[in-house]
């Protein structure tokens, strides 16, 4: 179990050379009414070992931001740099987890987890694959279902399988888009703690999109609140808790204060987005 070290400030260096740089990024998508601007001059640096959560109204452009770092979307203007080089395509250094289960229905649980390990871009020696697959099946509570296909699993189990697949490849970056959103409260909390354990053991850099303010505070070293569409950065908040971190941070008075501050900002942006939608439907 994690233990909270609330007296230690976050130890994540936010100076020096960033691993990821969003540089004055603009994204526009074509629509029947002309180009729709989704991101509007957004700049953000992410450093090695940081856990950055993105919070903002539905449809404001958060997934688009992550998709650029994943290599799925190119900016209309500006640049997205990974270790100083423009991101042009997906790569095994970036594990992406979406809310909808990213699993292959025709493969068993064991085969799904092993899949990424077999790709030639993955550097894990073949002799270690079986052990890694077993470890993640155990961690995710899937060991008894090793030879089942996803259609025989519950929704929550399929999402745990998607997490196991992403973790097993041990990417340097985890890009997570509402990864726990479809899980029941208890499983969600267990998956959050497991993620903290994986990060503690493997030292990854994480970008998480979440609608849960509590989840963002519990997991992140920094929280980026973005505006209604087109998304810009509204505020960046440093979370004052160090790692390893555990359930007791929820009791810290600073947790409640942060929650109130972030909720207020997010509510304001939701209200702005709703006003826009009303104007669009006029
Ligand atoms: N490839 C695309 N082509 C056209 N429009 C797109 C494309 N991708 C996203 N959009 C639109 O861009 C806007 C922002 O979408 P995005 O998924 O980035 O928002 P989001 O903040 O992640 O939303 P949510 O919180 O609901 O998941 C939406 O209006 C969406 O319909």
TrEMBL record:
Q: Which CDD domains match?
A: ABC_NrtD_SsuB_transporters (cd03293)
Alphabetical list of Gene3D superfamilies matching this protein? P-loop containing nucleotide triphosphate hydrolases
Q: Which PANTHER family match?
A: ALIPHATIC SULFONATES IMPORT ATP-BINDING PROTEIN SSUB (PTHR42788:SF13), TAURINE IMPORT ATP-BINDING PROTEIN-RELATED (PTHR42788)
Q: Where is the ABC transporter domain?
A: 20-253
Name its species. Variovorax dokdonensis
Q: What Pfam families does this protein's entry cite?
A: ABC_tran (PF00005)
Q: Key word Membrane present in the record?
A: yes
Q: What is this protein called?
A: ABC transporter ATP-binding protein
**Presence of the UniProt keyword Nucleotide-binding in the record:** yes
> SUPFAM superfamilies given for it?
P-loop containing nucleoside triphosphate hydrolases
């Amino acid at each position: 179990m994690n233990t909270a070290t609330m007296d230690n400030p976050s130890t994540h260096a936010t100076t020096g050379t960033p691993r990821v740089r969003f540089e004055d990024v603009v994204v526009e998508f074509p629509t029947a009414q002309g180009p729709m601007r989704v991101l509007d001059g957004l700049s953000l640096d992410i450093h090695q070992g940081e856990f950055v959560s993105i919070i903002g109204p539905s449809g404001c452009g958060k997934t688009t931001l992550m998709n650029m770092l994943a290599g799925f979307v190119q900016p209309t203007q500006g640049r997205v740099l990974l270790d100083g080089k423009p991101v042009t395509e997906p790569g095994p250094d970036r594990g992406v987890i979406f809310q909808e289960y990213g699993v292959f229905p025709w493969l068993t649980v064991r085969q799904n987890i092993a899949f990424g390990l077999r790709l030639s871009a993955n550097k894990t020696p073949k002799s270690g694959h079986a052990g890694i697959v077993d470890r993640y099946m155990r961690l995710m509570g899937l060991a008894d279902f090793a030879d089942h296909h996803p259609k025989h699993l519950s929704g929550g189990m399929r999402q745990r399988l998607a997490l196991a697949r992403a973790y097993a490849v041990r990417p340097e970056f985890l890009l997570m888009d509402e990864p726990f959103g479809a899980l029941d409260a208890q499983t969600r909390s267990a998956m959050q703690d497991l993620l903290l354990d994986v990060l503690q053991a493997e030292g990854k850099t994480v970008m998480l999109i979440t609608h849960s303010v509590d989840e963002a505070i519990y997991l992140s070293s920094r929280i980026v609140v973005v505006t209604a569409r087109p998304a810009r950065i509204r505020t960046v908040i440093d979370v004052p808790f160090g790692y390893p971190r555990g359930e007791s941070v929820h009791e810290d008075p600073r947790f409640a204060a942060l929650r109130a501050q972030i909720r207020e900002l997010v509510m304001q942006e939701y209200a702005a987005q709703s006003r826009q939608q009303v104007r669009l439907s006029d």
